[in-house]
Amino acid sequence: MEQTVILSLTQTTLILMLQMMSPVLLVAIVVGLIISIFQTVTQIQESTLTFVPKIIACVLTLIILLPWMVNVFIERTNELFAQIPALIH
Predict the structure, then answer these.
(1) Residues 73 and 16 sit within 8 Å (Cβ to Cβ)
(2) What range defines the domain where residue 15 resides?
(3) Tens digits of per-residue pLDDT, 38-69?
(4) What pLDDT band is residue 14 in, cutting at 50, 70 and 90?
(5) Predicted pLDDT at 64
(6) Per-residue burial over 12-25, b = 16 or more CB atoms within 10 Å of its CB, e = otherwise
(7) What is the spatial distance between Cα 39 and Cα 49, in angstroms, rounded to a whole number?
(8) How many domains does the chain have?
(9) Distant-in-sequence contacts of 18-23, Cβ < 8 A, 24+ apart
């Protein structure tokens, strides 16, 4: 394989990973920010208060977005398999 093909496949894979991770990461960041503001206002410094709501929010986000994530992953996989004959030449 040529370098351009390998770079193109790597770029596609990284973009796919970013697309699939970004909703969960954004939810975790927003929930973490809200909890940090709540802790600052109430002066509660409980360490479990930050982790449990983030985990719950991330799991709920995964449950809601899992069908979309699977569809995107299957589409990209089908595109990759369709490109295999052209890559082998």
Answers:
(1) yes
(2) 3-88
(3) 988 988 888 778 899 999 999 999 999 999 99
(4) very high
(5) 96
(6) eeeebeeebeebbe
(7) 9
(8) 1
(9) 19/72, 20/69, 20/72, 20/73, 23/61, 23/65
**Is pLDDT at 23 greater than 70 in this prediction?**
yes
What type of residue is 51?
A: F
**Which amino acid belongs to residue 80?**
L
Is the separation of the CB atoms in 61 and 19 below 8 Å? no
Give me the amino acid identity at 61: T
Tokens coding 61? 């986000």
In angstroms, the CA 43 to CA 65 distance is 34
The reported pLDDT for the residue numbered 75 is 93
Mean pLDDT across 71-78: 93
Nearest 5 degrees, angle CA 29-CA 34-CA 39? Answer: 120
